[in-house]
Inverse folding.
């Protein structure tokens, strides 16, 4: 059965991305600071289909395991627009559902990646993604606002964050505006490495209070 997950890097002060995000400045220019652990791994570059990376450590194992368990992706329009011009063909190797108000035909790439543009809300995107995932997990790719929508709707089962040892000072916070009363949260795993700390959490929706 599919789980609904997200897997995100953040700074020590909780920022998912920097200021002034856009197609010409993806993630507000902070990707190298937050994701250096990933860029250092051969597994990351192998996923892109190119040579790269200096190491193949526990971090690389983590990357491979996360890739293997993911069967479909959901992302917001802003993240899609930042990556559309620069992502390599068939980056995701799965169906990707883009939340947008734009009416657009699916973008079928060479390989196994197809982008579908969803105009009728997060539940619709999730239903379609679960069907595409065929029992694997559905990953809410980002950006932060999209992750927040799924969290606040009580739809997330598990998440992973990778805390980079940097302060950004400003930007877009991953957990801005989260409803604190939706979930019971359990730490499932803590893995330190040279460039980040990996944390895995399980989310269980709190039982509704009985009606008096």
């Amino acid at each position: 059965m599919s789980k609904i997950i997200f897997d995100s890097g953040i700074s020590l002060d909780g920022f998912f991305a920097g200021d002034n995000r856009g197609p010409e400045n993806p993630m507000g220019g902070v990707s190298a600071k937050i994701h250096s652990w990933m860029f250092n791994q051969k597994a990351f570059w192998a996923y892109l289909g190119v040579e790269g990376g200096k190491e193949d450590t526990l971090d690389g194992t983590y990357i491979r395991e996360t890739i293997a368990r993911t069967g479909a992706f959901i992302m917001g329009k802003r993240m899609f627009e930042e990556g559309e011009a620069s992502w390599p063909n068939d980056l995701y190797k799965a169906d990707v559902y883009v939340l947008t108000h734009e009416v657009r035909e699916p973008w079928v790439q060479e390989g196994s990646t197809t982008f579908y543009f969803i105009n009728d809300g997060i539940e619709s995107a999730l239903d379609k993604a679960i069907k595409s995932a065929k029992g694997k997990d559905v990953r809410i790719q980002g950006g932060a606002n999209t992750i927040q929508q799924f969290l606040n709707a009580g739809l997330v089962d598990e998440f992973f964050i990778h805390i980079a040892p940097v302060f950004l000072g400003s930007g877009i916070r991953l957990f801005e505006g989260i409803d604190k009363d939706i979930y019971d949260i359990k730490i499932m795993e803590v893995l330190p490495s040279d460039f980040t700390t990996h944390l895995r959490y399980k989310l269980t929706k709190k039982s509704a209070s009985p009606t008096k």
Remarks:
- Helices lie at 31-34, 36-39, 42-48, 58-69, 77-84, 122-133, 144-152.
- The domain at 4-205 is CATH 3.40.430.10 (Dihydrofolate Reductase, subunit A).
